[in-house]
Design a protein that fits this description.
homodimer; 7-stranded antiparallel sheet; 3-stranded antiparallel sheet
Chain lengths: 192, 192
Amino acid sequence: MGKVRLGPQTLIYPMPVLLIGANVGDKPNFMAAAWGGIANGEPPMISVAIQHHRYTHRGIKQNLTFSVNVPSIDLVKEADYCGIASGSKVNKVEVCRFTVFYGKLGNAPLIEQCPVNLECKVMHILDLGSHALVVGRIEETYVSESCLTDGKPDVNKIKPFIYTEDPAIHYQAFGEVIAKAFSVGKELKVRQ
Amino acid sequence: MGKVRLGPQTLIYPMPVLLIGANVGDKPNFMAAAWGGIANGEPPMISVAIQHHRYTHRGIKQNLTFSVNVPSIDLVKEADYCGIASGSKVNKVEVCRFTVFYGKLGNAPLIEQCPVNLECKVMHILDLGSHALVVGRIEETYVSESCLTDGKPDVNKIKPFIYTEDPAIHYQAFGEVIAKAFSVGKELKVRQ
């Protein structure tokens, strides 16, 4: 099996579609981000890469709070719009008809229609070049009641989606379950 | 639509399955990580959360290099095994029958069988609590020739998978394409 070198590329799979929220002045605004992931377990933290010039970034620096909202497939148009338009020119909340609520931090706007919402306090902002890596401590988690099964979040009801660039720039749904984690690998223990 | 508060949780979708590689002493070792994401565009960087006590982390701190390998569905057992076993006790490369190669950095081990490999140089290590957030600059990208279409990486050939915890701890395949990104949201522009 041969390998081809492509030079330095931002190439991992899957990437999420996250709607990052911040109040800019008094106005709630949301941008789409595919570059982020969980950053710490205890206490729970998340990191998101945001271009310095982004309108949302201004709000994050002002308030040192932000939100992470996981959209469902039903919101794919709205999520995409949040990645196309800039809050400096349009009111995305109005265009997307988002119902915004606030939690314990008071100034990190959350989207009612998104099944999962994280309220975050900024811990670090690393200037890495084109982007700032914003690391936030997750202060509270909200899940839509309709997306729970036996009191636990259920990915089949949440219906999140993936951002893919290859071979084309698409959003993809989650597919079939292929194996049980922390389990299927045990079969290889016989080789130890 | 009501919301339920679940307290601070590491709850985003999707999470990747990444095999993080490092030489510990002279021995290549790989661990599975679901907590990571792209951290910067120019230059390309990636961040991964790793528990301090992990064997792989020792190698990362020693060499200040690491690799990120994206497994395909065909490697689900091997990937899971890398998340169960510790390199301090077993030789995961032998058990998984990985063919290891090295690239321009010389000491970041890469897995031939994984369709996508990133070679990284450590830029920052942030101690966030239970985990260290390791930020690496992507120095080179390798893609298996068999996973290219017209010279570009093709997700349908790479066949990566997702780590899900809810409602059960599973790996899931990618599902159907639901919309074109930076496109479907334009339909909402009429509301501006």
